[in-house]
Amino acid sequence: MEKIKAFLKRKDIEISLKRYGIDALGAMAQGLFCSLLIGTIINTIGTQFHIPFLTTTVATISGQDYTVGGLASAMSGPAMAVAIGYALKCPPLVLFSMITVGFASNALGGAGGPLAVLFVAILAAEFGKAISKETKVDILVTPLVTIGVGIFFSWLIAPSLGQAAMKVGDFIKWATDQQPFIMGILVSVVVGMALTLPISSAAICAALVLNGLAGGAAVAGCCAQMVGFAVISFKENKWGGLVSQGIGTSMLQMGNIVKNPRIWIAPTLASAITGPIATCIFKLKMNGAAVSSGMGTCGLVGQIGVYSGWVKDVAEGTKEAITAFDWVGLVMISFVLPAILSLIIHMIVKKLGWVKDGDMKLA
């Protein structure tokens, strides 16, 4: 047992929730952002501003036409796997081999490909790290092992993982359609809290293909956390804190939450209110890339995702037009309501003596 522990330490193979559930998951979201999400944004810009270079076919592969954005989106599997490999500190030959692993696992995982990529990429990366530089023909053995393990597990478990993710996501979306008030609260609160915790709400939404009305509730929850913390901590953190939390991440408050969990009350209660408002009143839907559901106001990705969904729906004929009510709903849910509700709730919490000045000061 000691020899095994020593070997794993030498290979930097750390079997832990932090390494796989936080580091790898967070990196996967970054990979999605740099491929699928950026591709969606490029396509939306090209369509809305009528830029020929971004809307015309630049490559045809196996009979499939691709625009610039389409090429970026098509690389989501490899991008996720390489990002995970980077987070797991893979040596070069393993890291480069992850491109093939990501392509295979994402393709075989279907719509639930991101979850399949997460599991398969972790397995392939750790096997690759274990064999790396253990032979004199490392340049052959390491890629063979990494790709071989990746392809094997892609064939073995990717389809099942993809289907499982789809079923869970479909159930959440069905439940939200059936009970928009209750599920609006649950989805908004849970996904919003996941965004603030050191895990990736974006990766979770992508893995579960969380779009539609449930995706709208997720956007509401994430915005409530980011905008909420930004405004209630303005006294301590000024404009820099407003920007870094409001369009960056509310995760910056995690250290302060550990010190005083009650500072989390205002943004979380705000999300419990804006979630059902999004689902029941504004009927806010995320029909863009599912990863956008878990981004909130981070780089305005959540809002861009909602807008790209509107554009797609109009193009497909499932939506007549983008209305003023759509815009009012998006602005209210994303910015106005989170700010107002969080401030009101925060004042009550402060009067109760649960939170004091300085509790949300960022280092």
Q: What is the H-and-E element order?
A: HHHEEHHHHHHHHHHHHH
What's the helical proportion of residues?
A: over 70%
Kindly give the count of domains.
2
What is the terminal separation in angstroms? 42 Å
**Which structural category fits the helices and strands?**
mainly alpha
Q: Strand arrangement, largest sheet?
A: 1-2
Mean pLDDT: 93
Describe, in plain words, how this protein is organized in 3D:
Helices cover about 75% and strands about 0% of the residues. With about 375 residues, the protein is an all-alpha fold. It has two domains: about 170 residues, no CATH class; about 170 residues, no CATH class. A two-stranded antiparallel ribbon has the order 1-2. The mean pLDDT is about 95.
Write a concise synopsis of the structure shown:
With 363 residues, the protein is an all-alpha fold. The protein is built from 16 helices and 2 strands.
List keywords for this structure.
363 residues; mainly alpha; 2 domains; two-stranded antiparallel sheet; 16 helices; 74% helix; globular
Furnish the topology, listing elements before pairings:
Blueprint: H1 2-10, H2 17-48, H3 52-55, E1 59-61, E2 64-66, H4 68-74, H5 76-87, H6 92-109, H7 113-131, H8 138-178, H9 180-196, H10 201-207, H11 212-232, H12 234-246, H13 254-259, H14 265-281, H15 301-316, H16 324-351
Antiparallel strand pairs: 1-2
Helix pairs in contact: 2-4, 2-5, 2-10, 2-15, 5-6, 5-7, 6-7, 6-8, 7-8, 7-10, 8-9, 8-11, 9-10, 9-11, 9-14, 11-12, 11-14, 11-16, 14-16
